[in-house]
Backbone:
């Protein structure tokens, strides 16, 4: 079985030669940051991902999590790896420095996130959700709650969860019924059942901090009557230590397709003590603080599994000797040539490579905008917010849809061995499959993109995104590739602008095609930029590999956009005309 | 969890109104056969699939197979279901009547095969391979072997297996090393290790008949030195009963992604007694007798899982209440509308429906040609052989690639619940994933299509297929749809004819795109035909559903063909230019 190795050379190329990280940090005023420091962080992160959590991944899938006597245990080694992660400060990378966070730029943290996702997706999830919880508590909780919880969530001494979904309320949170009853001491008694709670319980930390959506008595119906509460597993004593058990517990853990080493819990709240976070009835807005970030993080999960699958497939293709090349024997001393010599195998590998490296570029572009949003106080902050809002559903939806394709290719390259668990390739396909579903299904992402992000304010988010891309394209040196990129951007802009005026039903019918169309075009632009930047690279493999992969992408992948484009401006009548009864006979 | 129901109305429509089964049987001289008899067979088959094996499917996945003390056990109920299957004569549907087979036409058996695959793919596999083994023994074995084994394989008293793959010999069988040493008594001592042997051992029958590829001493190297042997688990006594244990055993069973209730065995042959089937060194040709059939059967597995997934998704979409329709409340008395009212959910369901029913039409068209091949002794037999040879890799590759897409859509319609095993949707995606791999990976199918089937004899197989389709299109009554179908067929024919002259390397680079292009075009033609035929249907749902689904297919699925077509006649240089070393950095 192939052992994961962090793709350091590609990170270096993208950050230094494509994104010009030093100029970027200078421009946004990220003091003390430079590309060398990021390199050092990546080197250490790679060690942790490769040596500590990657070796636990395969066994973790086989053993899974267990619920015994109301407590969840994770597979062997998982808790110890978490202690090492926390001990080395990884959990605090992005945290507020007032609470001992390291306050690193996103461009430094996102490569680490990718590595963690590649190495062991199940293991990564709980730490990812803690980072999301930190954002919500830092921004919306009272000063008292921040003082009690934030430092320990940032360090990772405690973990955090998001409790949104209920059996009857998934995509539609307006239907949630968990109750929050005000108590005389200013706290709330939380009662209800939540499902699909990642890291709802585990054996890693002395406390777990649940962020729970619930309804106050007489709250308005629908999403305008939802409030957010902080509900710890253990109530704190006067020294702010986990003490008395709160009235909540794990009902069961789900038996899932993948991410089996991540406990997905049914949580029962039986009058548990909770504290309001943010204002009454504004809970969904608080949750949305975490949403852009969490959705992007789920996109990153797609990227992480793509990289792991590509590595596994490539190493097997180089080793596996079967048949001869159509060009005649290439390894005459062996009984057969490696399957790397089969054009169709190379097509599969290049598809994986073009998507993986393209999505990585997209992730770092997004990280760059997050940096701008974080550091800049001028007009650039608002611009970056617009861009991030527009790119978020594309990252979440496209990166995870593509990951299912890429990880399935990984299986295919192995032939029948890809179907056997010990090789690890099918686990990647099973693990990454969740990413199309949670944090809003990809259908929800598509609806968000076309129904809200594209059309709100007459297209401001789109325009900000197009302007940013247009400016970054203009520095390309190859005129032909520059023109290609400009044409793609222009076409995307034109069609998007038309879609703003489509009615809601037709837009909903075009939503997924628009998301995919946008993803393919965006990756095309990024590939042309990368090919251009690679010409100056000192790394001969980058210099050869980027233009060749760009050519492949433009020729063999980008044409897919046409199939999506062809239905964008048409009516949804073909979707709606058939009666429900005539769907089956 | 949705319980499978056989799609009887669609079978009836396709067989009676689209394929005109009575005329077909008359034309080929299938005496005693008519559509009513086929209906009766289907009704009984549906009962078995729905009531006997479908209820075992979910638990079978959880429990899986076990190897203890060298013997394999299958999940509870599996063996009893097999006894019922055999007792009711299902195993003998296609068998030679000289050995108590029922000798049914393929058009009668193929709907049953689909149902078995839908209801419980794991359970189905062993019976499918027995049918393949019957074909090889009937056609190639000596009269003595036929007398000893055939009746019991046809009835199902014993099952059969195919032993091809070895650790170092998968796609490339020329590398296989299992030895067959001639013994004084005319038998052979078989020694070697085989992997991926479906049904290599189980607790269903008193004997298992292995068909094993091996090499004779001094056999030529490569595929011209491979012979086929019949190697029973138990040697027969003079009453032709299973008696003494042969020198073979199960080394282990694979831990797989899916089809967990089907035992996939590592088989060790330690000088096991075997009998030559067919001529020495002509083993691969004997195996190819089963290959068209087995590859088509694997395509049928794709279809079966598509149907099961579509049914599950449709029933959930009708029940699940989340959010309101973009048109405003459709179920005002409920707290939300069913997700059937969401255009994007309908897009997913229509994609499943369009593929499932399109592939079903393809499967019955193939069955019709198998009937012609079986019953006709005149020029039609040779024509049907050409058509079957051409369509086989398309059926195997396209039907199974599409099944992975369709079953993944099934998960997506369920949202997070699709990822939870108890709903059964993710099992379908895991189970069907094997079908892209075995009986020749889909890359091998694509290479077979473009490299052998298309170009051999200057395109005879292509021409026979185009002629057959052209003739069947001509009976369409709607002129516009007729012209659309003719245009598609013409385009396919033209591009295919050009591809015959492309050099081997470029053809290998275009292979998968050509297979997919062909699949999309073929389904387009079949959809236009079905929409035309449905206009006269007495079933109002068929009358409404087929044209609406045809419109959907033409508008939202068929455009994919363009992305594949655009690379067909281009060079493979973009695939081959990058050095192996520059695939990673």
Residues:
């Amino acid at each position: 079985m192939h052992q994961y190795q962090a793709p350091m050379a590609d990170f270096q190329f993208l950050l230094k030669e494509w994104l010009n990280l030093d100029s970027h940090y200078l421009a946004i005023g990220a003091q003390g940051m430079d590309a060398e420091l990021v390199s050092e962080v990546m080197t250490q992160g790679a060690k942790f991902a490769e040596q500590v959590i990657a070796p636990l991944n395969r066994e973790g899938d086989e053993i899974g999590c267990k619920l015994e006597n109301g407590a969840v245990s994770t597979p062997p080694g998982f808790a110890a790896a978490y202690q090492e992660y926390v001990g080395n400060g990884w959990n605090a990378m992005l945290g507020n420095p007032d609470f001992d966070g390291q306050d690193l730029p996103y461009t430094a943290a996102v490569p680490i996130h990718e590595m963690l996702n590649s190495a062991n997706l199940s293991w990564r999830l709980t730490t990812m959700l803690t980072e999301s919880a930190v954002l919500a508590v830092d921004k919306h909780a009272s000063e008292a709650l921040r003082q009690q919880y934030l430092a320990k969530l940032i360090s990772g001494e405690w973990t955090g969860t998001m409790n949104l979904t209920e059996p009857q309320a998934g995509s539609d949170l307006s239907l949630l019924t968990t109750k929050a009853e005000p108590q005389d001491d200013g706290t709330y008694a939380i009662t209800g059942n939540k499902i699909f709670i990642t890291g709802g319980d585990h054996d890693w930390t002395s406390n777990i901090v649940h962020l729970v959506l619930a309804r106050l008595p007489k709250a308005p119906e629908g999403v305008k009557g939802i409030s957010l509460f902080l509900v710890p597993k253990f109530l704190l004593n006067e020294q702010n230590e986990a003490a008395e058990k709160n009235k909540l517990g794990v009902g069961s853990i789900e038996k899932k397709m993948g991410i089996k080493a991540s406990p997905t819990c049914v949580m029962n709240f039986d009058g548990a003590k909770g504290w309001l976070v943010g204002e009454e009835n504004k809970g969904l807005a608080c949750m949305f603080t975490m949403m852009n970030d969490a959705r992007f993080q789920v996109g990153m999960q797609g990227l992480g599994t793509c990289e792991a699958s590509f590595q596994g497939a490539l190493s097997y293709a180089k080793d596996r000797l079967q048949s001869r090349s159509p060009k005649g024997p290439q390894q005459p001393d062996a009984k057969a040539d490696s399957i790397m010599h089969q054009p169709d195998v190379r097509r599969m590998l290049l598809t994986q490579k073009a998507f993986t490296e393209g999505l990585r570029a997209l992730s770092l572009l997004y990280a760059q905008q997050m940096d701008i949003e974080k550091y800049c106080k001028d007009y650039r902050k608002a611009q970056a917010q617009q861009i991030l809002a527009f790119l978020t559903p594309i990252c979440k939806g496209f990166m995870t849809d593509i990951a299912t394709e890429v990880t399935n290719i990984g299986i295919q390259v192995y032939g029948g061995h890809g179907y056997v668990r010990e090789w690890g390739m099918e686990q990647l396909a099973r693990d990454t499959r969740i990413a199309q579903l949670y944090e809003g299904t990809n259908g929800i992402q598509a609806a968000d993109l076309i129904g809200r992000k594209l059309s709100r304010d007459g297209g401001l988010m789109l325009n900000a995104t197009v302007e940013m891309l247009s400016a970054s394209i203009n520095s390309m040196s190859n005129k032909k590739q520059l023109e290609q990129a400009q044409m793609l951007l222009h076409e995307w802009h034109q069609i998007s602008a038309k879609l703003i005026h489509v009615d809601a039903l037709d837009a909903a019918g075009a939503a997924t095609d628009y998301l995919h169309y946008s993803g393919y075009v965006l990756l095309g632009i990024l590939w042309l930029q990368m090919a251009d930047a690679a010409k100056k690279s000192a790394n001969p493999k980058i210099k050869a590999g980027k233009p060749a992969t760009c050519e492949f992408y433009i020729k063999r992948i980008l044409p897919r956009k046409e199939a999506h484009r062809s239905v964008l401006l048409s009516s949804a009548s073909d979707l709606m005309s058939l009666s429900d009864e005539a769907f089956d006979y």
User: Anything to note?
Assistant: Chain B has a mean pLDDT of 97.
